[in-house]
Amino acid sequence: MANKMIYTVQISREGDEWLATCLDYPEAIDYAKNLSALEKGIKDAIILAADLPEDSQIQVQMTPDKNLPNSLGQALELRQQRNHLQNEQAKLQTRTREVASLLGNDGYSIRDSATALGISPGRISQLSALPN
Fold first, then answer.
1. Is 116 helix (H, G, I), strand (E, B) or coil?
2. What angle do CA 13, 18, 21 make, to 5 degrees?
3. How many CB atoms sit inside 10 A of residue 50's CB?
4. For residues 90-115, average pLDDT
């Protein structure tokens, strides 16, 4: 599992603290007063448990314990959806840049390329100016 960069983490409350346990590495556990500190701490714990380089960029997918309110589960689902959309947007931007370059190489005008891609001519110019 060392190559996996998204880890599932179950969160719960223990008194006034949050508890996180990585389902992929049960020995990776962390406590914190707030969710942002918990997320940072559990990432560090996962990196240690998975024997990853210290500078590894990993993501955690938090799932609530069944005893937590449904509203937290809904918020975490929205977070997952937002993360998914951000990843898709990055892929779309890369592909748009590639196709804009192909259109330019094939002799299409900036205006025609922009219309075909559904973006502004100014954005085509910006994409053309970016280094490969």
1. helix
2. 95
3. 19
4. 95
Average pLDDT for residues 36-50, to the nearest whole number? 97
Report the sign of the C-alpha dihedral through residues 20, 4, 58, 90, in that order: negative
How far is residue 77's CA from residue 83's CA, in Å, rounded to a whole number? Answer: 10
Confidence (pTM) = 0.72
10 Å CB burial of residue 99 (0-12, 13-18, 19+) is middle
Per-residue model confidence as pLDDT tens digits over 11-21: 999 999 999 99
**pLDDT by residue (tens digit) across 118-131?**
999 999 989 888 77
- Residue ranges of E strands in the chain: 6-14, 17-22, 29-32, 59-64
Name every residue whose Cβ is closer than 8 Å to that of residue 14 and which is 6 or more positions away in sequence: 31
Gap between the Cα atoms of 76 and 86, Å rounded: 15
Q: What's the pLDDT score for residue 1?
A: 44
